[in-house]
Amino acid sequence: MSGKLTLSSLVIALGILAVSGCQRAHVETPKAANTVSIDYEKYTLENGLTVILHEDHSDPLVHVDVTYHVGSAREEVGKSGFAHFFEHMMFQGSKHVADEQHFKVITESGGNLNGTTNTDRTNYFETVPANQLEKVLWLESDRMGYLLEAVDQEKFENQRETVKNERAQRVDNQPYGLRFELNGEALYPEGHPYSWLTIGYVEDLDRVNVNDLKAFFKRWYGPNNAVLTIGGDIDVAKTKEWVEKYFGDIPTGPEVEEPVPELVTLSETRYMTLEDKVHLPLLQITFPTVYARHEDEAPLDVLSDILGGGKTSLFYKNLVKEGLAVQAVVSHPCRELACEFQLLALGNPAKMQSLATLEKVMADTLNEFEARGVMPDDLARTKGQIEARTVFGLQSVSGKVSALAAGETFHQTPDLIADDIARYNAVTAQDVMRVYKKYIKDTNSVVLSVVPKGQPQLAAAKPTFERPIRNIPESLSDATELNDNALSDETFVSAPSSFDRSKIPNAGPAPVVTVPDFWEAKLGNGIEVLGVTSDETPTITMTIGLDGGMLLDTSEKAGTAYLTALLMNETTANYSNEALANQLAKLGSSISFSTGGRYSQIYVSTLTKHLDATLELLKEKLFNPAFTQADFDRMKERVLQGLQQQAKTPSSIAKRARDLVLFGAENRVSLPDEGTIDTVNAITLDDIKRYYQQYYSPSKASIVVVGNLPQEAVLSNLDFLAKWQGNDYEFNEYSAFPEYQENTIYLVDSPEAVQSVVYIVDRSLPFDATGDHFKTRLMNFPLGGAFNSRINLNLREDKGITYGANSGFIGGKTLGWFEVSTDLTANNTAEGIAEILREIQLYRTEGVTEEEIQFMRNAYTLSDALEFETPTSKARFLRQLLSYDLEKGYRAEQLDIINNIDKDTIDALAKQYLNIEQMQIIVVGDKAKILPQLNALSMPIIELSVESNTREALN
User: Fold this and answer.
1) 780 and 705 part of one domain
2) Which one, 88, 356, 610, 773, has the greatest CB density within 10 A?
3) CATH no. for residue 540?
4) What is the pTM of this model?
């Protein structure tokens, strides 16, 4: 997308106060005092590469982003998916970089990396310690200028299978996953670049060859169609030298014109129905509107927030609060060529007969808005949220770099923050009503109903539009006019380099990284408080943790803790839901209660200047929950419907089966945080009130605060929490866990699934910071803990039967386990399981290599530079200290272990904790398709039902 600041899409605005940016090298652009902007310098190499530099010395790290102005919108009919396909190919090595070396080099440098593709752009990015910058520029320049000679048929075929697996996992095997494809086909005319998904059609991926792909690269991936943005702890002069050295030799690519927005109109309202493996019927109504940064974009965004932006919205009032929908939102996602105004609701089957009911309520709500008009608070919320998002955006170098890259790519202006704030602040009530009448009222739309299979009667109306038959040209010409007959090896030979690119640049001196300096205190009632004082942004991030969570549920009423937290976000004694949400939005603040695992948590974020007002609202929510019957009934129904939907979702089913196998049906931890349909049905409002009275107590509470206030000021503000009183409580012991003596396959049938979700699990150690659990994580890293791990390279890169596979030792306060997880192509389910077990066995018998040990050491030790950048990451560190009662110096002890652990120790850990003979295999897939394969593995197979925990032996 186009990097815009909106309310509806929750894109974070980024900026720095009262600084100026350069439009060209050494050319200052004056800005008014106190404007909001990101400091940058921009210049262009002779080959057309645009370079943007941003200095930020607050943390010893750099973020590098290379954005190419090519996405699926640049593709041709019949050749969909090319841009995304090439995102994958760009990680497969180049002329001077070996296969998979990109991931290995960055991981070993202590960094992280990824790439993304959408309709309008493709970007590649890395965050690394500051001393690794030259190495990143070497990598990125090599794949920009020296890629094609390394692309061969074998890599092409492998990544084609990986992309098809990704589509299967994210689209075809995902509930509601096809709605985006259907909506695009109905909303845009055939041939419009937004009429197909970025990931493309499988038949298009199967049709093309490696030369088609190379020609696409040749056309679009030149330096003159790219923006290189570098931000962080950089030496500007040295960075410019490196940029010129590594990118200056790359020749200019073909000329690229800016795309022209292609707005669409509909001659009639188009009704479509998708029967899918879902429980909750979904209604989506989409109106075509404008394009990114059109003058009407901002008022349309404000309109979407009024209609469906949370608890202050009309959709919440009329659909969610009335119980007709589990969720209802309105959004206005914008892209370079076109925007869409979307009304969406997940229907509650218990309260509506068909989606026609929701469609009528939506129409009535639009009429209500027209009669009601735009209130002063509607615009006040907009301004409050913009200010808060802008300031919070300062906390991440990667966020600032991404904003600069997007601004330049789409609008040739890196820093658009002040302009965005100005255009949203300028929106008037008259603007909002004008765009409503122009684009929404009495206009045509696409109305998509997603209903459970076999229940087309639930649709809003009978279909009036069918998926179009794709017209594929008999002869597919490439945009570069380099068709298959004209291509030769010479076409893709890279330009010579002025230096030896085969040598990996050396890293500079490692940055000195220290654990954040934090303070400790205790409130008068015993609550422990840890804090970090950081002056980087005028913000406060605070979490209150309550130990217990789901472990305090009774087994017959599992889900009580989860439902209590949901109700803590609802009505209070003195405020309605809507009034509280309105006050928080105007402040730009957030307060949320949640329960996950053994902790209930309260999260608070605010601009420091609004801390007092925000804490007054926290006091109200924490101490005066209303627990009304209406809120209880609505939230309970929402949980129940969500559980019904989870029962249709393969990934959710697999996690449920995993926990049952690991911990047994008699233990609370084997059930979801939300509970089950039976246990939630048993919960009453009195149970919620009782849970609150017993367990929302300071006795096992702790607080973490990160912000720009000193300790004394923070503690003064928390004085109201020092007066909090409550009784202590204890935890129940676990029941006995299941014991296993042989491998068994637990099969959960998911008819017509195109992939199989697989877990291979064994109970293991709970968390420790410096003991065997920590050491098992080091041991596992080469096996399944990194992209370049043995399991992932085997299944994804060598076999092409998954989008990704990983393994890990997961430890909590009292429980832990080992797991391998992956989604496998259905036809290769048994093969994938056999390969995972083979890799584990090989690792146990032959052990780790010295090269793998060094890879692990570098990855773990150098990554500290990235660990403590943002308030959220600092808060996470403090929360871990409190949760596990860790000593201040435990990181130094970990570092000593990492640097000194040897092959003998790692091999011994593998033999001790990779208990392959006790590992249990969970498979969620199409029984009819995969059972014959699984039988060939010669293991007992038990068909498992997670809802009833019934088991039936299948061999």
Assistant:
1) no
2) 610
3) 3.30.830.10
4) 0.91
